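== Item description ==
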Amino acid sequence: MATEGTLQIKAISGHPGTVPGRGAIRELEVAKLVDVTTCIGCKACEVACVEWNDHPFRETVFDNTYQTMPTTEWNYYNLIKFNEHSREDGTMMWLMRKDQCMHCADPGCLRACPADGAIVQYTNGIVDFNQDNCIGCQFCISGCPFNIPKFNSESNKVFKCTLCSDRVGAGLEPACIKACPTGCLHFGTKAEMKELAETRAAQLRNDSMFPWPNAGVYDPQSIGGTHVMYVLHDITKPELYGGLPSDPRIPMSYTFWKYLAKPVLLAMALLSLLGVFFYYIFTGPKLPQPEPPAREEEL
């Protein structure tokens, strides 16, 4: 497969300097394509995800919808969202969308994370979490424009979809792709998936019987593009598909510390240490003071 090969690290959260091994091997970017127009909501991808990641099956929550639960959870990376939409002609549509980590080219979770090595971005586009290095600060949750990372209060760690990095590293496709029965899910290089998506969107726009004039590909450039893309009936209204943001952006308030506040705080800490050091050199250690003489009335 074109996606086969060792995972090479592109970026590491909270890590100063260069990435070890950068440029040693050329790695193609991979991507997952979700064609929402052919999704039947069977949830086979949900089951495959839970089984492959060895998570316990959760109780479903009935909330007047066929959706398994309101949102993804720390041990439930993949969720089919069901949304009813009334068209202008009065017809009702079910807009179903597979919700999971988007594996952004410019990941907000990585930019916001202060822990060295807790989040890694591979050269093939996969953004992975290393829970051993996670400090539980949850900055990554606030930095994600898609509300994906979820916190486990028992382990004090954050989790999300890994795009089956273990399978992809062995030359296999993600588990959800393997389980999809309708061809809704596709996996390959980013260039191949983008071409396939554009071809499908053009087909939807030019359909002679049931055309979708606003059909398009969701690959937002405000975050440099994503490695999970969608073919939507209406690209002008992605919010209809379970709150998919039309212009996702990384909150600057959660990346400000890394570019300005963190260096300033580190400099202040260094100056404080230097101050203590020079005080010790010029003044010397603080010697114990002699006890005051006893007063006469105490004798």
Observations:
- The mean pLDDT is 86.
- The domain at 9-251 is CATH 3.30.70.20 (Alpha-Beta Plaits).
- The chain has two domains: 9-251, 255-287.
- Residues 256-283 form the longest helix (28 residues).
